[in-house]
Task: structure prediction
Amino acid sequence: MITTSIKPIQDVFATPPLIFPENIQFDAYIKNLIEDRSIFKYIRNSFIIATGTSLLTLILALPAAYALARFRLKGGGVFLLILLVTQMVPGIMMAMPLFIMFSTFNLLNSYLALIIGNTTLALPFAVLIMRPFFLSIPKGLEDAAVIDGCNRFTAFVRIVLPLTKPTLLTVGTFAFLFAWGDLIFALTLATDESIRPLTMGLTTFVGQYGTQWDSLMAVSTIAALPIIIIFIALQKYIVSGITAGAEK
Result:
């Protein structure tokens, strides 16, 4: 992807293919980052949608995972099975029901629609990852906090929540990743160019009569950079969070 983005267009179709280009040029980056800055609109939208999805997923997954871990809920096992099954449902199967529902509530072409759509895919994963971590935290810590004057909620906020930092970062990062790379909901729930994310911006380089491969690969490289930076910065927490979520 990177080498294609810095090749002259004639070298993209060279036979045999050139892994390392003989002539390096950055015309595609200059064109899409300096001359034509419309791509920044898509990047902004992707950040809004991905960040909103990450936050909404954490807000919903935290109490759900904690309740499934700490309380004996009737039908809790069935609920966990349903969450597991939903991981096997392709996202495209959710697109049409969500389109009908959001059109009823006039939510189409809004950030909220895309955030909720992506959260439906990230939420089951988040609950399944966070529940085992809560199971690994000794319940005696909360009981001691209750004895010291906390109620159930303050014990959760002051004692349990600070211990979940690796898992929170893991779940938040993966939810961000799901939303950042989404194309299905962006295609079905948003027709307004002003709120479409970066994945839809990439499709502008694919036309009926050809593909602008240099520009497509240059913008794809730019789109991958935030995810790479996030994983490099948080890899220690992500690995520990995944490990903690797999202990039980």
The CA atoms of residues 5 and 217 lie 5 Å apart. The two ends are 39 Å apart (CA to CA). The chain has a mean pLDDT of 86. The chain is about 70% helix and 0% strand.
